[in-house]
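Hey, sorry to bother you again with one of my protein questions. There's a protein on my desk that I can't quite get my head around. No rush at all, and the record is pasted right below.
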Amino acid sequence: MGVIAHLVLFLGLGKLLYPLTAIILLILGVGLAIFHAWKHRTTPIKFSLPARLQFKNNWFQAVLVVILFINLGFSFVTNVLTPPISVDEVAYHMAVPKLYVNHHSVYYLATIPHSNWPFETEMLFTLGLLLSSETLAHYMTWISLILILR
């Protein structure tokens, strides 16, 4: 996701922020992910819980873990599917990328000082907004959060 964010930044610096370039970038990213998965397909993924979380005779711990995952899933879905309502998101996380999309480039915004901060999250929002989807912009940032946790 960081590579995709940097590529969107370079497209913006080159004044190439158009929906077609966003689609090409997403196809390229998915293609590279499929190639990487195919290349490492013989490597088995081993997942095992720590010894203290084996749930052999402790149904209560298993129920608590299921409740934990349900709560995480609920917060994920509700935060992604709601319109932008937080102050930071409305003030600059979505406002700055919307300006970039409208001008098809990344440029200096003297009136919004937060636009001078690192561009990682804003570039993922820009990619989603290029395809006219606030939901996709939210999904991109949440998926990157999940990938960071791996």
In short: The radius of gyration is 19 Å.
